[in-house]
Design a protein that fits this description.
Helix content is 23%, strand content 22%. With 181 residues, the protein is α+β, with helices and mostly antiparallel strands. It has a domain of 104 residues: Yope Regulator, Chain: A. The chain has a 6-stranded antiparallel sheet. A hairpin with a 2-residue loop joins strand 1 and strand 2. The chain is elongated, with a radius of gyration of 42 Å. The chain starts with 5 loop residues before the first helix and ends in a 26-residue tail after the last helix. The mean pLDDT is 77.
Length: 181
């Protein structure tokens, strides 16, 4: 795991009863993941849990506050809310709130999943216009024709004929030789 601060480590200890929770550093804070989905974040020493339309009323009734950041000169409210005050230091009190956050993250992932459109069915051809199907010959992979083995004498020569070296005749010397008799 990446270097963590003490509050993130403490939060991970509180969430041990939930299951394998991972913390990843992001945007100056930490994202908390369960089953590959982000269900919480830690920012400015505060734990925030994922909410949706189903769980937000419970968080509001418990006196929780939303995660708000400033971006582009305006305040933006995220779908992450603080846990109730009594759940911040007690793993047993935090567990049901963390489960709600994991469920909200799962519902959000389902909403984002692309919906598959049913494949359009082709209209069947009228029976009278159907021609009987002809059996097609099976396609077989064509092999390159085999090369015939060359005799050893020819195998040494390359495919392109080489020019034979021209025998050079000794040119007659123009200077007379002195011969002694």
């Amino acid at each position: 795991m990446a270097r963590t601060d003490s509050f993130v480590e403490y939060t991970l200890e509180l969430l041990e009863k939930l299951g394998p929770v991972q913390a990843r550093r992001m945007f100056g804070g930490w994202g908390l993941y369960f089953g590959g989905r982000m269900f919480g974040l830690v920012g400015d020493g505060q734990l925030y849990l994922k909410t949706d339309d189903v769980t937000r009323p419970d968080f509001q009734a418990a006196g929780c506050r939303p995660f708000i950041y400033e971006g582009g000169g305006r305040r933006i409210e995220m779908s992450y809310w603080t846990a109730p005050a009594d759940a911040n230091d007690d793993a047993y009190e935090l567990l049901p709130w963390a489960r709600r956050a994991v469920d909200a993250a799962a519902r959000a992932a389902l909403k984002k999943a692309p919906k598959k459109k049913p494949a359009e069915k082709k209209a069947p051809l009228p029976a009278a216009s159907k021609a009987p199907a002809k059996a097609k010959p099976k396609a077989t992979a064509k092999k390159a024709p085999a090369r015939k083995a060359k005799p050893k004498a020819l195998a040494k020569k390359s495919a392109a004929p080489r020019k034979q070296p021209v025998a050079r005749k000794k040119a007659a010397r123009k200077s007379p030789r002195v011969t002694r008799s």
